[in-house]
Amino acid sequence: MDAVDLIQPFLVEEIESAIKELPRNKAPSPDGLPGEFYQHCWPIIREDVIAAIQHFYQIAQLPISWGSTHTVLIPKKENPCFLKNYRPISICDTKYKIISRILVSQMKGILPSLVGMKQGAFVPG
């Protein structure tokens, strides 16, 4: 894979693979739909989701709602009394996660040729 491959439209197989890889038992996105919804209802929503993600690629503009996150405080212990007793998490839209997974998957193939031999952070092995 080279840089030219990174500008190709997202393939249906890439979208479906990203959806299959979505983690289970995670907080739902701001629209209330968790990854399991996409996996379970895939036969029903397949065409619409594929069209939406491919449309994003064609116009190179992410809908505002897809890029929005909700920050939620999760208690670290029972009966938290102080702010330090909470852990913040950012809840992202599931379609944003799908696009991110596709981009990461595509970049894995080209990353070794872009990163120097002495680079160690964020590079497996």
TrEMBL record:
Protein name stated in the entry: Reverse transcriptase domain-containing protein
Organism: Acorus gramineus
InterPro entries: DNA/RNA_pol_sf
Superkingdom of the organism of origin: Eukaryota
